[in-house]
User: Fold these one by one.
Assistant:
Number 1:
Amino acid sequence: MSGLEPLGIPGGDHLREALTNCSDPLAAIEEFQQENGVLLPSLKPALPFLDLHGVKRCEFHQSVLEEVREKLIQKINEVVNGDDKERFQKIETMLEKSFCVIRVASLRPVIMNMLKTLPKIKDVYLKEILDDKELYKEAATEVKRQIWEENQALFGDEVSPLLSQYIREKENTLFSHENSLSTFFLMSPKARRQGEVVQKLTHMVGKSVRLYDMVLQFLRTLFLRTRNMHYCTLRAELLMSLHDQEVNDICAVDPCHKFTWCVDACIREKFVDSKRARELQGFLDGIKRGQEFVLGDLSMILCDPYALNTVALSIMKALQQCINNDVLPRESTDIILLLRMLGLGLGAWDMIDSQVFKEPKLEPVLITKFLPTLAGTVVDDQIRPVVARLSDEAQPVQRPPSQLFLIFIKESEVAAMMALYYTLQVCKNRDKVAICQMLPCLTICQSERHFDDTFLHSLVSYLISMAEEFTNDDFHEVVFNQFFKSGMSKHNVLRHMLRLVYYVHPRIPQEKLTVLMEALKPNQGHSDIINTTYNALVDKIESYQPSPTAQAERLDSPLMSVPAPTPAMM
């Protein structure tokens, strides 16, 4: 075995020199074996038995080496896990004597295990591992952490593929045409953070506050560069994963920990109740002077689509409670706080980009004008079926949203977000009249919120459940021509449309389907995934076979020839 010369054990070069200068090569080999073999007196008589069984000396020595290596690693672990106050000093002493053979592959696991157990590794060892690609690749994460802490670029290279994988997984959930249901918001927060990427990042960070800060900086930078809200989700999931593993070294220094923990509980319950609303308000109002920068991270936590979804649903539920109790929205403290949280989440990108850490001003007219208007629209939806039953008219009276409502959703992101969730609510209720009223209006939403992937994913899922309505020309016109058509130049909108048509195409009249498929046809500027999805849709349409209509069963009963009785005269 070569590489042991630093320990005073001769290797291949020594044997080659001995054979070159000796007069009897066999004697030289035997002498080398006796000097460097396993020096146990009881072993020497047993070796001939191995020869009789055809076991080569190399195989025997290799098996002994493997056994001794495992025993040594086990002993090192026992020392580290013991109560000896000088246990790390003993490991360092062993490491000083043995690190010189780290490039010997069969002995490397022992050296790496010693390095892994040390809370602080000397820079000279870290540098040598960093300079050798093979050693770096085989080093444990505990060793790499200490390298990463002083090398942010290298850590970024390690983290970047995981972040890309995380975004791909989120997009696959949003765009996949393999499921007609709305699956994005179904998984619980605790189940989500058991995912591969979050668990790998958690392990890479360990208890290192420095590495945790680096990951947060990567997420902020990518969020600013892409406006992708999934990075906000990962920021919250990473912190809560560390919370689950009780990494108090990090949780104790992150000022967002308790706030994120509370928001996580609300997401789990899909509702922000009054008690948790007061807790969250305490966090927002308790930010001390000089610590306003914390608002930047709090806004990222609230910008998480799961948090925005929970807050918006809670506002709709609180608004319904106001309607039931004949209370104005401005009298509900919960609604006011939820609007603050919604505004803070929607303003996350602007706040981090401008570095002006100030909570967005909640316009009073949102509470005094917009919410009552929205509440009135909800009431109209609830009484419309009653009015239709009492009226002689075949079609229910449609009242389009007021001009004031349209101004609000055009100029306010908070109002636009509430309009989106009102639309999802009427879609869930299969209220075709309300859907036809709202969808065309959403095209003027502030910041094009109506084209957010999370909204379109839920909207498409609800529309798929209403597939029968696409036989109606008016419904088809509203959905495709008045709503989706304005965003067809966007790749994400095109993917959501492909998912919708994938499921509802049997209900679309053939001439309209032909026009629609021509409009959806990808061009050279579209990605491979869009081309693949479109081709899958074409194949599905071409292979579609309508269910045969069941014919009425013919009855051969003799009673069929009997004339029907005439009605009795009064």
Note: The chain has four domains: 1-36, 43-148, 152-354, 364-385+398-542.
Number 2:
Amino acid sequence: MWRVLIIDDDFQVLEGMKRSIPWEQLEAEWVGEAMDGKEGLAVIKETNPDIVITDIYMPVMNGLEMIEQLREERYSGEIVILSGYSDFQYARQALRLQVSDYLSKPVTLEELRTVLERVIKELEAKELQKLEQEEVRRRLMMYEPFVQKEWLKSVVTGTFDKAVADESLKLSGKAYWQQRSHAVMGIELTNTVRISNVTLTDWNLFRFAQANIIRELLAEQWPESELVELHSHHAAIVFHMTQGLSLEEAVHKLQAIGDSIVHFIRKYLQLEIRIGIGSIKTDWKQISNSTEEAFLDLLRQTITNQGDSATLAAGEEIAIRPVKFYQELAEAIVYSREEATRSIIDGYVQQLHEMPAITPAYLQYLCSELWTIFAYSLHTAGIVLDELFPDSPVAQEIGKIVTIDDFKQWLQDKIRVIGSSRGWNENSRHKDAVDFMIDYAHSRYSEEINLEDLSKQLYLSRNYLNQIFKKATGETFTNYVIRVRMEKAKALLLEGKFMIYEISEKVGYKNVPYFSSLFKKYYGMNPSEIGKKTL
């Protein structure tokens, strides 16, 4: 039942409306009355009505003063003015205070009923929006771990946007990193007989079990740490340390934890892993440098185990960010970005040409790594690499690579076959659809946007569009549109040129209270507070 409160200094008007309003038909109930604005405020706080019907000219406190105070106190109910004064100034002020309707006395029963029916429909719509908003919040909470995981991966691999680094740290909820030093431990699952012929599904199970063991160990020995799963058989741990920990103590403890991880993975999973450790960085933006050092350490171990100690003739010079290269290439493959894949390969090959100590062993090592990454990345996109190259003697091909040009040609040949496959082309078409949806959200955020209209334009079903968008971005299209609108609203508020109701309309929300509520849940403050604090 919708709760209705009536405020009027005329006792006969109060009694007349109480008797005349068809409460049952409207599914409403009378919850109280008052005869001036001050009394009305008290009764409203006590009864919390959904609808307030009020006169304007009353003793002690008039109706407009009462409404203004209600709005300041964030009263979210609907307000209908019923007044014997039809002055334009009153009406304009009432409009500014976002009242639902302004009726002049005398009013007929039919007029009053029509207004109440409309207001109740608006309340029902608001209630539905509230439920939808809760669903949005639930989904945002559900997707938050995914977003956090991807952000961590971008920091570890060096693919994060450095232009907005400080803001991204704040939004990630990890601002305490600024008071810590950091070091990265690289983890490599080595290719033994036990895993040489396992399916990619079983490989994923191994990775899952490995991650569980590592996380349990870290919880006991170094709680301030983050495990980040990278491409295929690689993972990384970011260790955060307080300024009071000496360099010697930190290195000793990291080595001890590394030994424990190797021991327990071997004991419980019968898997062999290698550990590499990067140097300690005082700035979180340099975490990716520690990552590259950790994987350079792993590379040295791999080459040494293969019996070619001359491979790393120039030592540190070999570290040209292979981890970042792997990550960018893996993402390009997953999302079928053929042009981006070529560009990433060309850029890395150019870096190799600029290095003075690239040996055949290192190039062959890169090819082996990339082949594993191809297999894993394509598997996540529903494509089996071995089925694309059924008769390809990969090990023999890699063994023949001795120059950077051989390496480039081998990579280009593989990408060409992958790019011509039907499955990858379908993924590419889906990526085009996702790009269109993203562009649509950014260019049409002030309009009513729904997947039904987009499905007609793209000739794909509504549910299918939502699925491919979520797969590509990690969030539903509805959530993405909300994020675009909130970010635009924030920018407009910071400009200080528009009223809140104007901004609400500019970003696609006709209902100002709903916009304000959504903004507060998104940024933790009301739109009106934007000038008092920095988002």
Note: The beta strands are 2-7, 28-34, 51-54, 78-83, 101-104, 181-189, 225-229, 234-241, 273-277.
Number 3:
Amino acid sequence: MNLIPIIPVKNHVRALFAVTFFILVNYSVPAQSKEDSNVLKSKINKAGNTSQKVELLLRLSAYYLNKDHEYKADLDEADILNGQARQLATSLHYKSGIGKSILLNAQINREKGDQKNGLKKAKEVLDYSIKNNLAELQADAYLELAMYGESLSERIKYKEMAIPILKKNGAKEKQADVLKEIGELHLMQDNCDKGLAILKESLLLYKSIKYPHLQGVYNLFSDGYTHTGNFAEALKYALLAEKTALAVHDSSLQLSSIYNHVGMAYLNLQKKNNAAEYFYKGLEIAKKHKSTDYVRVIGDNLCSVFILQKKGNDALKLLKDMQVNYPSYDEERQIKENYLFLGIYRVLNNNEKATIYYNKLVAYYGKNAEKKAENRMPILRSFVRYHYQLKNYTDLYPVIYRLDSLARASNNTIMLSDNYLIWFKADSSRGNYLDAIKHYQLYKNILDTIYKGETNKQINNLQIQFDTDKKDKNIDLLTQQAKVQQIQIQKDTVVRYVFIGSVVVLILFLAFLYNSFRSKKKKNEELEIQRQQINEQNELNKKMLIEKEWLLKEIHHRVKNNLQIVISLLNTQSAYLDNEDALMAIQNSQHRMHAMSLIHQKLYQSDNLANIDMSWYIYELINYMKECFDTDRNILFVLDTEKVYLDVAQAVPLGLIINEAINNTIKYAFPSGRKGEVHVSLKNTEANQYQLIIDDNGVGLPADFEDTERDSLGMNLMIGLSDQIDGIFDMKSDNGLKIKITFTRNTEFEGSSDNAEII
């Protein structure tokens, strides 16, 4: 029978003290942190330069200082507002405001991590308060100085110095807060008797002012009685803390601490199922608040319960889950994990892995756990269990004697009884029955003292009282539900009469609707006949439209074929001609025909019979020209075109212009195999305005161009086609030839282009 949790009570309390202390300090933060910043800002804007404005500025500064999840920007804002308050208070000679500003400055520096300046300002505010006889400020200065104490004793000293001042001023709630903090500090010093006595003073003060949030005090009482080994009292106050927290609807991280202490009390009283229930509750709240410290500590406790219940796999799964989702790289945390793994693998009878973690603990503590005095007994107990499981009696007995000595010295009866139980088992295994009987009797004597008689009655009474409170709450809830049901019955009666009246009105309304329906039905029948006639006409129109589209496609197809036939005829005719000018004229005509043929080919192949994608068209036309003249070796074509959709009336002239310009560029711009580039650009310049630019870096126009070429067929064709699309034709020679045509896109078929096919 195992009486002690794998992780000792005392160590658990210490592990949680830092976190618990942080919670309790936060609960004593002044009410400024709960104020509405917008309301304060509004009051500041309306206030004149008076002491009232100083107080408002200080409250707003404290609001930013005490904000949850504070950031550097909040602390900077608090600093600025405090500076404004200090400046105004100085100009008004408002001593209280000046002192409060100095105190706030100390707190801001401390929150920023500037301990040196924070301590300096804390001493400054103490001197100022004494000099100007500001008693309340003097008490606050002592409390601020306590935050910088290098030892627990120094912190206690400063807090105790504040008590007489608070008592004299009648500040009972604040006095109770400080007493509670002093009591907690004494518990952290292992001075449990004094700590509990001071906590009782704090509790009496709280009750005298009917302060409702007593869960933090009760939680500390549970800590204190756990320290002293009075687990029944620890359970009593832990349950009181839970009851109070639920009554005031406290769902903060403090509730997680309370559930943990209830679980620890149950665990030390060997009520493992109750302990596990509360550890689960505490763990869920800790996860909700994303507190790694609380998750790890309470998770370790739950692992301890699993180990005691021989649920090694559950403990292993929980510990590994915490390592992944809540990692911690603190050395003490690593040692704690090794400690738990030793217990887990011992329970799983995996002695090989248990030995690995045993060796890690020995490397850290030594075989007799001489390091870390506060951890000697639990580590030694784990060594005892490990050696007993491996029947390693040579190493077992020295550790048992060492643990017995430490447990007696600290009067830890529970640890002592657990040690006697293992000792009894070891003696029995070795056949040393006289010693086995002696150790078993020692074990039973301690066990009977701790867990029998009045203690058991007290625990059962606590459980009954707690269950009774729950039942009383359930009765109150049922009473309230009965009242709600009575009100609901009355409402149902009213609803019934309203329903009957509504049914009568509905019947009259339906009669009216029926008459309306009969008249509308006849009209609807007439409309239905008209609708069918319209649908028939629409179907006929749809068929006619399909036929027209098919005919239009067929026309494009035939036009394309006819143009191809003409191109073939011209090609055949050129075979019988010897005149170079005639051959050139036929070739030019072929190119123009192909330029037009491409457009009709695209329209035939596309679902959009109205518009053509000019970016595709220009690409195809340029490729055709390159193949005809074999220009790949000396002329590089660079295309920069946008998706532009034009109808046939504009696409054909523009295509012929491009054909003519490229034709001339290939023939004349790069004589004697000269290399160069030709840029073709078609872009939208503004709403429905487009610009075609064809330029090259060739030889440009000859000096006598105006006289000899302006009347040529090619030039006349480009100029005439530009006029045809209402465009402006411009041509100039500057390090090559640049032709620019600006025109407006025809929007008659605007809607068609939205569904244009993209090649």
Note: DSSP finds 29 helices and seven strands in the chain.
